[in-house]
């Protein structure tokens, strides 16, 4: 863990624009869950891995969050699509919802996430 309470997710080189994301364990609203980080337009973005339509994980398989064009994040179950840089619903059954963001930064060759009041680090 870094001095600012950030937690390491992965090497920065593990993320490609519009490519696979990396999942990481979190405690969300008091329950075990996963977060994920993807790279879009050169920057990392992280969200709670929970669709705004129905609270289920988004990915098709481990780390597949983008739909085929690499422009939108897509829920594998119901097809809701989200803007990768804002988490806002861009179409489908999410109807104006948005993904829950997780603060993330890229430094020292790594991707780091920052716990907050609702999304915490799991017990070690």
From TrEMBL:
Keywords attached to this entry: 2Fe-2S, Iron, Iron-sulfur, Metal-binding
Ranges of residues in domain Rieske: 7-113
Keyword Chaperone among record annotations: no
Any Pfam family hit: Rieske
Gene3D superfamilies per the UniProt record, alphabetical: Rieske [2Fe-2S] iron-sulphur domain
InterPro entries for this protein: Rieske_2Fe-2S, Rieske_2Fe-2S_sf
UniProt name for this protein: Rieske iron-sulfur protein
Species: Massilia varians
């Amino acid at each position: 863990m870094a001095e600012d309470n950030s937690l390491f997710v992965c090497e920065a080189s593990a993320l490609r624009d519009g490519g696979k994301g990396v999942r990481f364990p979190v405690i969300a609203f008091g329950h075990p869950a996963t977060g994920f980080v993807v790279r879009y337009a050169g920057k990392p973005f992280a969200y709670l891995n929970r669709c705004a339509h129905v609270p289920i994980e988004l990915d098709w398989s481990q780390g597949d969050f983008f739909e085929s064009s690499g422009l939108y994040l897509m829920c594998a179950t119901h097809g809701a699509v989200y803007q990768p840089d804002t988490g806002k619903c861009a179409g489908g059954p999410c109807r104006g919802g948005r993904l829950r963001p997780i603060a993330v930064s890229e430094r020292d060759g790594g991707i780091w996430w920052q716990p907050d009041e609702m999304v915490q680090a799991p017990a070690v």
